[in-house]
Amino acid sequence: MTAKKSILRWELGGIVFIVVLGTVLHFAFDWSGRWIPLAPIAAVNESVWEHLKLGFWPALAYAALEYGRFGRSAKNFALAKTVGIYVIPITIVVLYYVYTAILGHGLLAVDIAIFVVAVIAGQLVSYRLLAASPVSERLNRFAPIALAVLAVILVLFTFWPPRFPLFRDAVTGGYGIIG
């Protein structure tokens, strides 16, 4: 099997991994009895913001698995995974606000479909960058910093979210873990 085919299989496998683990993380905080140490990675409410963690953390975990398999040898690995991981929350936010602006309300089935589409988009973008010609080494060195920034923001805004619609719990009207 060629390297590109192997990478494509891993990226496609990542779709299943991320969707399944993301789905578990949607419910994990409540299932745990609202165990605070789980709050940084699991959704603590029904805000759009909290749903971004459902794609980010599983995609980051899968990237770590991939790194162990082919990360040292793959071109553009850090950049590919970073851009792919960023595509997930960006896609979720854009598609959610576009469709709810059109319909005037959310629909659970559409929200679920958006999550799956966002994960597929992220993994396919990642594959395209992994299969591309090498890019600047600077970009690959900067990529982990960009991931760390997003991780820190996801955690901080779970506990101290801005009072902005993206962070508002659609069910309770509260913000973050505190409400």
Mean pLDDT: 95
* Terminal CA distance: 51 Å
* Topology pattern, helix = H, strand = E: HHHHH
Number of helices: 5
The number of domains: 1
Tell me, briefly, the overall form.
Answer: globular
How many E-type strands? 0
Q: What is the SS-derived class? A: mainly alpha
Beta-strand content: under 5%
- What does the largest sheet look like? none
Radius of gyration: 17 Å
Low-pLDDT segments? none
Q: What percentage of residues falls in helices of 4 or more residues?
A: over 70%
Descriptive notes:
- The chain has helices at residues 3-31, 48-71, 77-103, 108-131, 137-159.
- The model has no long low-confidence stretch (mean pLDDT 95).
- By secondary structure, it is mostly helical.
- Helix content is 71%, strand content 0%.
- The protein has one domain (3-167).
- Helix 3 crosses helix 5.
